[in-house]
Specification:
alpha/beta, Isopropylmalate Dehydrogenase, single chain
């Protein structure tokens, strides 16, 4: 029997808990998962069962939302984050990661956190969720992928100023990003020989140096080296012609050079169904592609679509990973 997915609750004052409830209403036994949370915080709009053993979630999920109880220091008031809950938020993530690493959970799906509340409550030293998970797993290099049925994209540089991208974008960083992306596509998506499209940095991929030299001096040599090793790569490609339907049919993932170059196309194509996937961890991690949304928390208007897709993708990835190990 496949292990259930662990869902960490994220910031209790945000929309994560109400979306977990709505996700269970739609998925129930089709995608068995359990919520790691303080039971006091969970909306009682559906049946809830507290677990002593996370593995019981596979059976329990058919009739009630399974909750693995974890005591938090404060209350959950919609839209009003309480720093007293910061330690509980961090422990929910850490517990989910441990259960995913030891196989009790098939994957970890994470509801959104609020970094300021974590810093106020615990002096949270990491830039975000992904870096904290990398710390918990003891790995240095991870890659952020945004994925949907229509497109998978990976930004090589992420949350930095656009002016800093040319300095941060090195051959070493690009090569490592491509290696982690290829391994993730093979091991977690079941694509044996992944086709990866590599975007250029400058307009028209530099147009032979007329619009910048990084495409010729940084990107192209990495692509050529990996092509010589038998990789299925194309690039550097002009980013403005990479994302129409005919172009997308030629690759399994696009590696882009900066944040918006990657995220604008996927959010335009499939805004509600985009899923954040962390590659390079020793376990599967997915997350909805949205934040805590304090402005609408508790109002019953937040859509659970991205969380549902994140849980479904975690299930598919776990199945692909299992098949890959068997072969």
């Amino acid at each position: 029997m496949t292990a259930p997915i662990a869902l960490s609750c994220g910031e209790p004052a945000g929309i994560g808990l109400e979306l977990a409830v709505r996700a269970w209403e739609q998925l129930k036994g089709d995608v068995p998962f359990f919520l790691i949370a303080d039971p006091r915080h969970v909306p009682k709009t559906v049946p809830v069962v507290e677990l002593s053993d996370p593995r019981d979630a596979v059976q329990a999920c058919r009739d009630a939302l399974p909750v693995l109880p974890l005591a938090f220091g404060g209350q959950a008031i919609a839209g009003q984050p309480d720093p007293a809950n910061a330690e509980g938020v961090m422990e929910a993530i850490a517990l989910g990661a441990r259960l995913a690493m030891d196989g009790t959970a098939s994957a970890l799906c994470t509801a959104p956190i609020h970094k300021k509340a974590l810093k106020d409550g615990t002096s949270f030293p990491w830039p975000g969720h992904t870096e904290y998970l990398a710390h918990l797993a003891g790995v240095e290099n991870v890659v952020m992928m945004l994925a949907s049925e229509q497109l998978r994209v990976v930004p090589t540089t992420i949350h930095i100023a656009l002016a800093d991208v040319p300095q941060i974008l090195t051959a070493q960083l690009l090569r490592k990003t491509l290696e982690i992306t290829r391994d993730g596509l093979r091991n977690q998506f079941g694509i044996e020989d992944p086709r990866i499209a590599v975007a250029g940095l400058n307009p028209h991929a530099g147009e032979g140096g007329a619009m910048g030299h990084e495409d010729m001096t940084v990107i192209a040599p990495v692509v050529e080296e990996l092509l010589s090793q038998g990789w299925a790569l194309s690039g550097p490609l002009p980013a403005d012609t990479m994302f129409h339907a005919a172009a997308r049919a030629k690759y399994d993932a696009a590696v882009c050079m900066y944040h918006d170059q990657a995220l604008i196309p996927i959010k335009t194509l499939d805004f509600d169904r985009g899923v954040n996937v962390t590659l390079g961890l020793p376990f599967i991690r997915t997350s909805p592609d949205h934040g805590t949304a304090f402005d609408i928390a508790g109002k019953g208007i937040a859509t659970p679509t991205s969380l549902i897709e994140a849980l479904r993708m975690a299930q598919r990835m776990a199945a692909s990973r299992s098949d890959h190990k068997e072969h």
